[in-house]
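From the shared-data thread, chain only:
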Amino acid sequence: MNKLLLVVFSSILALVLAGCGEKEKEQKTEVKVEKKVLKVGMELAYPPFEMSDKDGTPSGVSVDFAKALGAHLGREVIIENIAWDGLIPSLKTGKVDLIISSMTITEERKKSIDFSIPYAQSSLAILANKDSGVKSIDELNIAGKIVAVKKGSTGHIYAKDHLPNAEVLAFDKEAACVIEVVQGKADGFIYDQLTIYKNYAKNMDTTVPLLKSFQKDFEYWGVALKQNDPLKAEVDAFITQAKADGTFETLANRYLTDAKKTFDELNIPFFF
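Structure, as tokens:
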């Protein structure tokens, strides 16, 4: 009788242990199929491209672009809000997988990071103080003229290289540059066309937008990646597809309707 009970008990124990083993296998399998995270760095201070809602939720053209890219790659997107100067260091140290932050592709940046194929084009423009008398880039390159630029931006680089006679003031934030112009402390602010248009729309009484390009070539925006990252091929493929299937046109219609209308009226090529 005792032997029989022992056999029965052993059988039950074996079944229980087998069941636990199966459960453990299932749990391990579940962990394996979890979506891999795609960490995207951007400075949420450049509406309507990179911004956040009142509750702090990231939003804008670049955010929607990042989410569409994540869906294409089958990866969950996490937006990391990082100050502009910290974006490239964060990419190089692995804090983020890529940068989508209205970043211009430049030869200097390409020395330490890679870029996708361009997804947008732009050109520099000027937000001039209404009383400055400035009507062209040449009128900023005069002794006594003060030019506001965002530190590290292509506007900053342009001013250093092409406006030797002006006093160039570099600020960390776009908003600080605009305030300098609005208050008459700076004669002009050099930044991309869309930003200039947007800030003119908010300050029509004190500013004038000079949107016509004064550069020989367009500037192009790209997704920034680590050098030799194999992810680049997939990002390039997505951008090509998004241009063809109307994804970028949809984003423009969602966020940039008024600006696109103005650009069309002035016969200025639009971003997408």
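Residues 2-32 form the longest helix (31 residues).
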